[in-house]
Amino acid sequence: MALLMEPGAEPLTESEQADLAGIAAIKEAAAREYKEQGNQFVRMGRKHYAEAVSCYTKAIAQMEPLSSLDAADASILFANRAHVNLLLGNYRRSLDDAEQAIRLSPSSVKAYYRAVKAALALDLLPDAASFCRRGLEQDPANEELKKLLAQVDAKLGEQERQRAKVAQAIASAKDLAAAMEKRGVKLGKAAYQELTGVKKPKLDEQGVLHWPVLLLYPKVMSSDFIEDFPETDTLSPHLDVMFSESSPPLPWDENHAYTRDAIELYYQAPVGGSK
């Protein structure tokens, strides 16, 4: 009997061949039945998706080992299971199933579509783009794949822009650190951020450092803030403008005591020679 044959052995007698044909027919019928049950569970809604996956898995098991004659049918089963895993959020399993469906049937547009969706969910953008293009080779007019490809290309473009932005920020930070080291400048803990916000020094294209500068008037509990103060500037021109005779008095200077001639300016520096 064919049931007692050694694995890999070829049937020799007509009886053995008939037995194998009968077994194959039974397994094929079982696979079809499990497939239909799986489809029915999908139609019944999300609560039954796990049962649908189980049915498709059983159907696939009935078709193993796969032959070239079974490839198209098996591809549909893998594509169906990929679809349900996609709905369940099992994106890695969905992608694995979709890829297997494509291997079995390279013309399966549904398998490419599901592979794209799963790859997108996993943020595998180059893979998603590849599946889109391969699917469009099979069906150039497929609007869904065209939309997905546009979406993937947009994400890839944004990803590249973000990489360039990060690279530029890192390069700028390194240049700034080198400029400060060259000048012997050491930064301490940020102070007065409630008055200045998160303002940081920067290095311009000419290699000039620009600093945020806070002017404090402790007697009147007030302040002024200069957001961009080049290291090549001095404070005198700023004070000339702020406290010139032609400028209106500051709102908090009711007695007009703060004039250009009366102002004395001090700056705070840490002990030890650091600026």
UniProtKB/TrEMBL annotation:
Domain Cns1/TTC4 wheel: 204-269
Short name of any one Pfam family annotated for the protein: Wheel
Position of the signal peptide: none
A GO CC term attached to the entry: nucleus
A biological-process GO annotation: protein folding
UniProt cross-references to SUPFAM superfamilies, sorted A to Z: TPR-like (SSF48452)
Protein family (similarity comment): Belongs to the TTC4 family.
Name the UniProt record assigns to this protein: Cns1/TTC4 wheel domain-containing protein
